[in-house]
Amino acid sequence: MLSGAVFRSPHAALVDLHKSASTKHDAEPIQRIDEYSEKFRDRYDAWQERYEKAAGKAEVIISKQRQGPTGTVQLHFDGATTKFSNFVADERLPSGD
Prior knowledge:
This protein has 97 residues and is an alpha+beta fold. Helices cover 27% and strands 19% of the residues.
């Protein structure tokens, strides 16, 4: 069993385990679960925002075609049915006014 001193510091080091009998010596893996830090939370929030902007969208890049144009095509992706369909941007949709 570990002493409470090990858990008081959010960045406790393995050196702190010497107070906990032979844990440092006998334990094969020593794992800790810390609370989420603000830095992690900020990164997660930024990722979540990017995900919400991209959710349901796909991009097909046509890089070579014998008799036709090349370029990028935006598609709508329905993950529930794994189907692609024509993509209509929000600004092109009719307003509900």
